[in-house]
Amino acid sequence: MTPSEARQDLIVLAADLSMQKVLQELLQRHESLRIREISCQVIVASYRDPAVLRSASEILQSSSGCYRYALAVCDRHGCGKDELSRERLEAEIETMLANHWRDRAAAIVIDPELEVWVWADSPHVAQAIRWPGGMPALRTWLQCKGFVPESGAKPTKPKDAYEKALKFTKTRKSSSIFQELAAKVTLDRCIDPAFVKLKSTLQCWFPPPHPPSDPAL
Fold it and tell me: Rounded CA gap, 110 and 73, in Å?
């Protein structure tokens, strides 16, 4: 076996434990992501979002010979440069990563924060946070509290809405809620730009195997 063959497929640097749980669960859903099965590891940055922004290159440097590709994932809110756009922050991280990974690394900056992925239009959301009355009742509550404008699909302050909803249902904050949603919610309807980039990047790096050819042809 050559050194190249011994390498694992992907290493991911996540900003916190909840993000790690989400990404670990998502990366197991290779059919839903439309990628092949991959070998991967998701590690957590010691100093959360600012560490991913400032130090992703240094943290991942020693792994460049052990993995084919790398991802660095953080929130825009709380990264230390909240005034910059998601695209600008991703470009900054990717420029640093290129020092050791060349074109084998990418950055995903979630705008404004991971909780925006929680608010999928799915009954699993209400179930995960133990909301009485299911998703229609939760949607009404979010609108009444001003978290979601009538024309909007998701809360404008997703983390605040998430924490207030948990408080209302007396549900303890836990990374397992994120993990549960990542395992159950459909991935086809999410149009969040960061999630779309995550999917397209994975599909580029790890395309699904071709279906077997029909022996009758």
Answer: 8
Q: Are 129 and 167 in contact (CB under 8 A)?
A: no
CATH of 3-115+189-205, one of 1.10.3470, 2.50.20, 3.40.1360, 3.30.420: 3.40.1360
Whether the per-residue pLDDT at 212 is higher than 70: the answer is no
Q: CB–CB of 162/118 below 8 Å?
A: yes
For residue 213, the model assigns a pLDDT of 53
On whether the CB atoms of residues 174 and 163 are closer than 8 A, the answer is: no
Token duo for residue 102: 């060349």
Size of the chain, expressed as the number of residues it contains: 217
Element (H, E) at 42: strand 40-44
Portions of the chain given CATH number 3.40.1360: 3-115+189-205
pTM for the model? 0.90
